[in-house]
Amino acid sequence: MSVILQTRGLSRSFSGLPAVHEVDFDLPQHEIRALIGPNGAGKTTFVSMLIGRLPPSSGSITFEGRDVTALPAPKRVGLGMAYTFQITSVFGKLTCHENVALAAMRRLGGDAKAVEAEVREALTRVGLADRAADVAGDLSYGHQRLLEIAMGLAQRPRLLILDEPTQGLAESEIADFKALIRALKAETTILLIEHNMSVVMELADRVTVLNFGEVLAEGTPQGIHASRAVQAAYLGTGTEEA
Amino acid sequence: MDFGPYLMLAMLEGAVLASVLALMASGLSLVFGVMRVVNVAHGEFYMLGAVMAWAVTSFIGGGPALAFIAAAILAPLLVGGLAAVADMVILKRLNYDPERTIVATIGLLYILQQATLMTYGADARPVVPPFNHRIALPWVEWGEGGLSFYFPWGLSTTSYKLFVIGAAVVLIAALRLFMTRSKAGLIMRATQLDGEMATAFGIPVERVYAAVFGVGAGLAALAGVLIVPIQQAHYLMGGDALLLSFIVVIIGGLGSLAGTIVAAVLIGMSDGIISVFFSPTLAKILATLAVALVLVFRPQGLFGGKGR
Amino acid sequence: MTARYYWGLHLGLIALLFAGHFVLPAYQHGNVARIMVLAVYAMGYNIAFGYTGLLSLGHAMFFGAGMYGMGLLSYHFDAGALPAMAAGIVAGVVLSLVVGLLALRTAGVSFMIVTLMFSQALAMTLVYFRDITRGDEGFVIPSATRRLWGMDLSDEAHRYLIAWALFSVVLIFTLWLVRHRWGRVFVALRENEERASLLGYDAFRTKLGALVISGTISALSGAAYALLFGYAGATFAGVQYSIFPLLWVLLGGAGTVLGPFVGALFMFYLIDLSSGVTDAYMLIAGVALVLLTLFLPHGLVGEVKRRLWRDLP
Ligand SMILES: Nc1ncnc2c1ncn2[C@@H]1O[C@H](COP(=O)(O)OP(=O)(O)O)[C@@H](O)[C@H]1O
Ligand SMILES: [Mg+2]
């Protein structure tokens, strides 16, 4: 399978302190990859560099064979990357419909009918179809998270980066989310930052573990789950068995 | 006059302008530094200072010196009080939102300016300086007999102008001491660093803001009082002063007191010199464009450290 | 669903103003003609400030560029109305492009000050080159320019109808623009620039586009104002004329198509009434600015939109 995204020596430090350090990362097409790691491990920083929110201190990013390291975020989105924020960042004063329409419009242009169809489909897939006319800022936190995901879907990206999408979702919503991501697998590649282990175990083809800004381990969900080093990183207690 | 003496005259005029500007811009910079708001009505506080100096000196008898001292005390107090009230009534309710505050202070600008027009009128009125000796200045020249002193015709200043320069130096030094040494100054700087933190430590941020806004306006008013024996009081005099203070504060780096003073000297001196040799309008056009470009390409100012 | 209603509302206003031509008494007829031209300025300002969130304090430079671009061609070369107007519009396009390329590197408070400074520089330049511009006094537009298709533009009836036509075109254009994809991206940038960038919209270019459209409409208004009312002067490029559109738009409602007209209408009459009483008529503007920011931040039409008619454009 061909690699859709690749990083080499990707690093970023904040005032001298490395948040991401020399990460080499390969993501094959149509894979669902989970990125896990304790709080502050550098996950958000890493994906922010992928999409172009943050410039890297050093290293390179290649997307579909093209070096995108110096490309501004909107251009990367134009190439087929999409990103949903960890801290919800919808257009609070606009309706759900308008939020998703903005996501769809860049690709579909002035074709109002196609935009309309895309908005309806994206909202339906996340279960917000009946909220289309609601103002995004008035939605519950969980629903705003779902709206973020709908905005990601409406872009029809070739690589969808989701930063902790299930945070704040109810159990039933998480179940729906799992189904949604499974269905997406045929269409796109997904990089998923996730804390919820059941989501990781059920969805991910492979898992990358980040710790102190470095790749600690990479493997199948089962392999990672069994790994001592990973457990140690999460528990922060040397080599004890969990 | 020869070029040399002429340049010296220009520099003296420039130094007077620089002094007044430094005082006024320090007020603007203080307000921006602590409260993070841009006070567009600052020029009107300067104008009010000048107008009140006229009012006080014309209603108090007892000779120009006494009247002037009274004006130098009363005008800044009254203007500062007015500004503090405006802060509590208007700016506080806007939560110091930067953009809304600018719009509101534009409103305040027109209110103060037009109210002055309605009461004080459209005339420019002079204030008698407390003292005003003409001081002829010597110039050195290489003559046949070596170095010689002489007093070129027209090269002179007045004792009052020298006083303005001295007063500004003393006042700014006092302001720096106040900000760095006194408890009130410390509180202001703490508030500047982190408003929420200051609240958590029990600093009455609202009162500090009102005080800072008042002190800032008071400094502008004091600048107005100092300038009015040289330049008459007029209800529209705030506009140019505001523009110049903006220029100074931006070049000096928004909110940096030391940078502001360096910039005031630079701008005041060069404005003085340029406008003696060239058209003052051209000088202002160039300075304004230069400042806009400084903000575009070096928002931290020419003398500021790292970026915002 | 409501598209029919708001087209009705906006076209209704246009029809009402057309009817005004036949029923308004002479004095009001002249006022409304002036208000319509100024409302064009306000609508231009609103595209930058109301829809895109670019709070400029220097739009008078665009108004002035249009006025002087038009006026100088007429004054020095006796150009006809159409070439002179074209010169005004070109001046607006060029100036807004240059200013945008520079000023849009800043945001927020810096953007306000940079636009203010550029505008001040232009106003002072107009005064400085008095040989060309007649300085503070300004100049009267020669009557050779004030003719169009056989109409005498100093005639009040013609003046009103041209102002009305201009107003109608710009109103309909605005209504179209803000419902178009571009207008919606403007709003997205105003609401959350980072989010919009990460949906693939180039923030700088979009804002530049908005500023050029806004500056060009403002220039169009400045050019038309000089053409119809026969005078160009440096005060029209001064700070006061940068504050006016802000005031009108705030009063009427930023980010609404009708707001600029409503704001210009109210403010014009407020100032007109008070200037009968005192020279200090700008006092009203000052008080209005303070009260609006304190108590009516959404403006008149904005309040209607907020409470009654959410998807009013
Ligand atoms: N904008 C920033 N400025 C300074 N430090 C930051 C910034 N963003 C993240 N960091 C630091 O980088 C490290 C990684 O953070 P982050 O990528 O958010 O971790 P994660 O998403 O894995 O929880 C943390 O130590 C955090 O404090
Ligand atoms: Mg994170």
Question: So what's the oligomer here?
Answer: heterotrimer
Element order, helices and strands of chain A? EEEHEEHEHHHEHEHEEHH
Report the count of strand segments of chain A. Answer: 10
Percent helix range of chain A: 25-40%
Name the overall outline of chain B: globular
Helix and strand element order of chain B: HHHHEEEEHHHHHHH
Q: Can you tell me the residue ranges of chain B where pLDDT is under 50 for at least 5 consecutive residues?
A: none
**Biggest sheet of chain A, in brief?**
6 strands, mixed
Describe the strand arrangement of the main beta sheet of chain B, using strand numbers. Answer: 1-4
The chain-level mean pLDDT of chain A equals 89
What attributes characterize this protein structure?
heterotrimer, B: 308 residues, mainly alpha, two-stranded antiparallel ribbon, 11 helices, 4 strands, 5% strand, globular, C: 313 residues, ABC transporter involved in vitamin B12 uptake, BtuC, two-stranded antiparallel sheet, 3% strand, binds adenosine-5'-diphosphate, binds magnesium ion
Describe it.
The complex is a heterotrimer of chains A (242), B (308) and C (313). Chain A has 242 residues and is an alpha/beta fold. Chain A has a domain at 3-80 and 157-235: P-loop containing nucleotide triphosphate hydrolases (Rossmann fold), CATH 3.40.50. Helix content of chain A is 38%, strand content 26%. Chain A is built from nine helices and ten strands. Chain A has helices at residues 43-51, 73-79, 96-108, 112-126, 141-154, 171-184, 197-203, 221-226, 228-235; strands at 3-14, 17-28, 32-36, 58-63, 66-67, 81-84, 159-163, 189-193, 206-211, 214-219. In chain A, strand 9 (206-211) and strand 10 form a beta hairpin. In chain A, helix 3 packs across helix 4 (112-126) and helix 3 packs parallel to helix 5 (141-154). Chain B contains eleven helices and four strands. In chain B, helix 1 runs antiparallel to helix 10, helix 5 (159-181) crosses helix 6 (183-193) and helix 9 (238-252) crosses helix 10. The longest helix of chain B has 33 residues, at 3-35. Chain B has one domain (16-238). With 313 residues, chain C is an all-alpha fold. Chain C has one domain (3-307): ABC transporter involved in vitamin B12 uptake, BtuC. Chain C has helices spanning 3-23, 26-51, 60-77, 81-103, 108-128, 130-133, 156-179, 181-191, 193-198, 203-229, 239-252, 259-275, 282-295, 300-307; strands spanning 139-140, 147-148, 151-152, 231-232. In chain C, the strands form two sheets. Chain C has a two-stranded antiparallel ribbon. In chain C, helix 2 packs across helix 12 (259-275), helix 8 (181-191) packs across helix 10 (203-229) and helix 11 packs across helix 12 (259-275). Chain C starts with a helix and ends in a 6-residue tail after the last helix. The chains are: A alpha/beta (242), B mainly alpha (308), C mainly alpha (313). Chains in contact: A-C, B-C. At the B-C interface, helix 4, helix 9 and helix 11 of B face helix 5, helix 11 and helix 13 of C. Adenosine-5'-diphosphate binds next to helix 1 of chain A. Magnesium ion (MG) binds next to helix 1 of chain A.
